[in-house]
Amino acid sequence: MKINTKNLMGEILVSQVTIKKYLLFLLLFSLCSSEASQSEISEEKTNTDEAVELVQSPTTTSTSSTTSIPESNEEESKLEPPKYLSQKNNFVQFDNCKDFRGIEIKTICGKQAEILESFKFENEVVDVIEFKDAYYIVLKRGEIYQLDIETGDKSKIIDYSDKVSILGEGGMLSIAFSNLTEDFILSYVDKSGNLTFELNTYSTNPTDIISKEVVLSLKNASRVHFAGNVIWSEYFNDYIVGVGDFKGNSDSPRSNPDPQDLSTPLGKILLLRSTVRYSEDLPIVSGEESEQLSNILALGLRNPWKFFEVNDSLYIFDVGLYDFEELNVLKYESLPGNFGWPYFEGIKRSKDILEDTEYKLDINTFSSDKYASFEEYIEHEVLLPTVFYDHKASEATSRFAIIGGDLIFDNSSAFNLSIVFSDFLSNELFLFDLINNQLTIMPVNSIEGATSVKHFEKNKIFLTTTSGFLHIIELKN
Q1: Cβ distance 259 to 266 under 8 Å?
Q2: How far is it, in rounded angstroms, from Cα 184 to Cα 201?
Q3: Beta-ladder partners of 439
Q4: Considering the entire predicted model, what is its pTM?
Q5: 31 Cβ contact list (under 8 Å, min separation 6)
Q6: Separation CA 31–CA 42 (nearest Å)
């Protein structure tokens, strides 16, 4: 058989070209398929990452592909560094004011405030309350007076001197009136040492009592740190009450878990009769879930002697132990708020203050979907003080206990939108300007033993003392 080599070579060349085209086609197809596959995987990973970020749950998974989802979840579950690590003290030295060590904001020395007028009572004055243009003066030994500021006339409307105990930090503590119904709450320590909140119902005015009912009674064996403040809340339409940790300085208060225990009212601020809807991730701290109180607004407090409400926020003055005094702000949008005591005092952990690496609170039960331990929970969830100061600013300057406090809400005042408060020991007022984030220290003569501070009018405030005075003080601009 004769073979035509020319034709054969042509066929071979055609075949080679065809094969090359086919191989090129396969290569292009493979590359396109690979790019499409990578694009799909990338899109799936992006969508999954967005879902993980939205849900913020380490258990979120994807069933669409074998991408790096576990790695992404692990990254999402990492906690941010605790905020307290970035907090610092600020030291300021003055010529005409006492030295200050505390919150790192602009701190200035103001002009000396002046006592314009004083009203004297027979024993310690612990509070002054305004209700329907009348002023009610609360005395530690159990009396409550109505005071006419213009004439100075006093009329005794309540006398519980035979019912209250003044041992330790006992006595009559506070009064608050409802704006909805004709009743008021008295808080006092009874003869058995119980912190008592009593509802009084009246007919036409607070002197015409119809009925009395003890709403809450708590035994305090140590007779100190009762707190006991009560206010009427426009936000909740209920009374808000403060309860201390019931521990004295000699009772190892730093080791007391009660202020963190959600099954006890100690070291808390509570709604007296209402309940609160909490977030679903609220941990269980001591006690069973069924025992958790449903009326806690704030926890982790030592001795919230005074507090006041403005719109949807509560301003809490918490007396410290040996180191810090605190002004705390609680936003109602996230309840309950945890202010850290006794794990924290001010901006420092107790273990750091004590220099004790073995420090640990004896928490019986801790359960949380978000945090692995109580320590991790408290360090990340603690609400740090809005304003704080040290007891010992310098060798020549000591402060003792923060005494609140009120908001000056008066456009005619040079101190409008400032929070005014004092210290029990140091003969001075503090004004924290909410707008400019500035603290002004204002010396005042002879106000040792301050027990409460309230705004009166314009640049004037009320200040009550353990020596039985109600002072009207003018703030100097």
Answers
A1: yes
A2: 7
A3: 107, 432
A4: 0.83
A5: none
A6: 16
